Amino acid sequence: MTMLSVEVTIGAAAGHPTVVSAAGVLHGKWGLGVEFSAYAEWQEALEHAFFSEVWDGHPVVLFVDEREAKALQQKYRVSVPLVEAVRQVVRPGSPKPFQAAENYELSQRGNDSAPAVLPLLACSVVAATQMANDGAHRANNYHDRFSELLTGKAGVLTSQLYLPIAEMWQRLAAWQVRWDGYRGVCTIPSMENLPHHQARIGYALSQAVLRDSDRQHLLRFFNVMRARDEAAWPLPGTALARGISVWDYEAKFSGSFQHALYDPDLRPLIEDLLAAIAAAWDGSDVYIPHGSLRGELLVRFENRRLGWLVRLPQPGDPSYQLEDGVVLRRVGATEYYMPEGLALPTGRTLQNEVRLHGDGIAVSRSAAPLVLLRQNVALDCRTSTERFLPGEDHMILAAPEAARDVERILGRAASPGRSKEPGRLSWMPEGWTLHNHVVFDDPVTLRSAILDTKGAVIGTIPAPNFKARLEGGLLLAPDLSRNLYLAGGEPDLVLPDGTVGGVLLDDQGVAPEPDRAETPLRLSACDLAPGNHTVHTGESSLEFVTAESAPSPREATVPLGFPLGGEHAKAYAAQASSHGLIRGAAVNAGLAEADAEWPVLLCRRGADETLFLSADGRGWRVAAPDTPGWWDRLPETPSGYCFEVRIPACGGWVFQSRRGVWHLEAALPAYPCLEPNTRYERWAQTVMVVADAGTGDEWEACVRLAQEVVQ
Question: If we measure between CA atoms, which residue out of 56, 49, 45 comes closest to residue 186?
Fold first, then answer.
């Protein structure tokens, strides 16, 4: 087998070049008709409902049943029902009934949107919600339900044809994980955690077992479990599953959840799901349905008066109408809203839970006997925070039942300089006490003091910090990158608990202030020039980028591409030149096949080895191009998570070895059309190495041929 590896352009055998580039946009002619119009509408609706920035940090379950599908169709004004839209793109009589949907997904790759498989996956969840013993089907008969849903008949879409759906779930999970919780915390299980005899359908089952009503019951259950041992919260999934089994209200959960809870094969999925939801639980008692905006009701202190403020952690409208005549109006261009019509805080409202609902929005504040206020730079006033922040100047308002606990903690952990206001101030709730200018320099001492005191202050304990992280800062384009900041608006560096030693910023020493090693370091005070920056502290390394403005999504006036010299293309983009450029997955016009509309596959970076094997006895070792440091600042920002492999006309398979396991991506596979002889020996040996990773009749035919060659 001839192996050829160049910087970006890979392979040139028998006049069929394979081009690898870092762009992810495909401009091919797939022959996709108008039947994909409704499918595309549903893709957009489902992504907005389940995988938008609204779910930042919250576990997302892609739960869709018939009722939910109707509600989503009405809410997003989709032209046709979900099942009908998916039926239009499924080919039941074909040996590859989902090929058109896969082609459509491939044609949409290259941007930051979710993989265009959501309507098909949603239908797979609908089928899972319909599993039941009705006399004609067993309770665990999934594939007949799925086949009836999309074809009207059982036995048409069989288990042998279902593999592409399982692979779609894997691609969705990989995309969601790449966003690191910004598009919702992933609850799709890994392949290793799926039941061995339900590996393919386990993805859909994992999303179908938990309904909205179940999540509401879970919040009440979490309150019970956390009250038993607050310091141990969040509990692992195994402990939560055991607790539900003996809870008095266990019978209130849906039948699908109870079945999965007691099914030994599905129990690990339930435990992982419970652990993820518990870890992200905000302490509220009310579950907010999918797609609703979540607002945080804050206490504001300004002009010696307490008031309210609402923060939306995601972009919102200029105003919102809530119940009881309350109107939210945005403060300038910030994420904060003034709640007009809401009575000023009192001792009773501060100690009780507050919940306000409107059209598609929910605003809440948990009950608490303490109000912790710190300076809000954006609004130039003090606003409340749930937990103590080491190094910050706090104002503490304590209800009578919490006053003694606060005194204990201040005596053990607070730095000098705090003050306690004598007497009662006119703006303070009756019976409450006020401590001003409270700073905790050492989070370890503070955490120990709170754990020893317990009582009303336990909820204010700062989270343990075991690694350095960047916090705050002014993000320029969060939809493009979570590491791109406005120059002058750099984030703060939060150091791990008990940090000793210096900090390096761009290889220059940055020392914390004397006796303040635990406080965040203000990187915005370092007068950094726009560009790439690296922070080193101990064994941790953090990178971020600063720029004067956000990248423009418009087409650049001067085309960018990858300079081509001979058969090699550089891995660094440049402006158009007379030497020709590679743009996307197209090579310069000097090659005869440059205008051919060949398919493109996206391969993950970080693989130990990537191979392309064709059915006509050829193969290439594919090398991933390096990603330049300034990659995210290009006018057209591609994803650095994958690289692009253009498949030659012969078609074949792309294999990637990751952690010793080979993974397959089919690329228009074909049956072998060659005679077994020794000239294909190296190709056959490679096929045998990855034989167990491939599937499908075409691949099995290649394996049989390879066996004949090597014998």
Answer: 56
**Looking at residues 64-88, what average pLDDT do you find?**
89
- Alpha helices (H) in 191-254, listed in sequence order: 202-208, 212-228, 237-246
Q: Residue 620 burial by CB count (10 A; 0-12/13-18/19+): exposed, middle or buried? A: buried
193-230: pLDDT as tens digits: 777 666 678 888 888 888 877 888 888 888 888 777 66
Percent of the chain beyond pLDDT 70? 75
CA distances from 295 to 280, 364, 374, 622, 686 (A): 16, 7, 19, 48, 56
Token pair of 175, please? 């995309």
Residue with tokens 């041929």: 705
Q: Where would I find the H helices in 361-402?
A: none
Q: Is 648 helix (H, G, I), strand (E, B) or coil?
A: coil
The pLDDT of residue 295: 84
The answer to whether the CB of 449 falls within 8 A of the CB of 412 is yes
Burial, 617: exposed, middle or buried (Cβ in 10 Å; 0-12, 13-18, 19+)?
Answer: buried
Cα dihedral value 53, 57, 62, 65, nearest 10: -90
* Contact status, residue 615 vs residue 684, Cβ threshold 8 Å: no
The pLDDT tens digits for 110-153 are 667 889 999 999 999 999 888 876 656 666 688 888 999 999 88
Is residue 89 within 8 A of residue 101, CB to CB? The reply is yes
